[in-house]
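Comment thread on ticket #2218

A.B. wrote:
> Attaching the input chain for the structure job we discussed in standup.
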Amino acid sequence: MSQKKNDNNIPNYYLYGTVLTRYGLASLNHDMRRGNRTTLQKGYWNGKIHSLVGSSAIRWALRFYLQKQGYLVNRVWDEDEHINRSTSEDFDPEQFYDDDIFGFALLESVETEEKTSTTKRKKKKAKVNTPNQRLGALGMNMAVSLTPYDGAVKLGAKSGKEKDSTSLYFTEYHATRYQYYFGINVTHLKDFSRILPLIDGIMNIPKVGGSSNVFNYPFFPDSLVFQWTNNFASYVSYCFEYCDPKSKEAKLTKEFIDEVECGQIDPKQLWIGGKIVKDLQQLDNFDNSPFNKVNINRNRNELIEALKTVIKRDLGLE
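C.D. wrote:
> Ran it. Output below, let me know if you need it in another format.
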């Protein structure tokens, strides 16, 4: 079912999306430690401090998914040694899924040799090889919490009778949802069909937060907004807001709703699934609004299967 690049005169296609996670407890993000205190990554968002999950942690989880599903990847995660092992010293986006999807950069060092004498100074520069690199088809942005970080810390202690100054430890945690934004330049892939397992990885993403099993926040979508388009840019980034502390529910931002209603975003390009669909259908005058033309389904799996059917048709994968 593969479709190689430039086999047909296929226009550029892009898949953009914002994923909203389930409500859960986040801690030990990407093994960030400071002494006996385990910290969450944090940054400013809308003027307040929010907890973050780095894009590298999400990319790691997607590569690990491809590996566990049996797809050929160059950087294989050794679960016993907790390191990546290269299948090949030479990166090959034609052969390896991760080299094609995530890209790579192998920069050759420049060696210099200097010779000096009492009368003159000579510099000899080694031949510089062209960097072996590829821009990946997948662009991934970091995940940001929907609610500000409230400073919650959990106290723990080392087991056993003997205690010392290092026995106590503190773990920052955050009860929240996360949203993250991604973009895939599908026709940049050496093999167009690789978009399909990548979508499956986003829908069934394994542990996120690095190599540690301790941090196992549920990062698969609770709600999602995808856009399948020929447009080079998208307006669907970070389109969720406000996690109600009582109901734990989120909503679509007013900015995103306005972009659809004014026609800036073609509603036929949108695929919206999950819990957010119920709120979407309760919008005023929904039946006569542009959102009535959006592909929506409360069942996320059914929505994605319908989207994949359209993707296969457009890319000539059928």
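A.B. wrote:
> Thanks. Noting for the ticket: Residues 14 and 229 are 5 Å apart (CA to CA).
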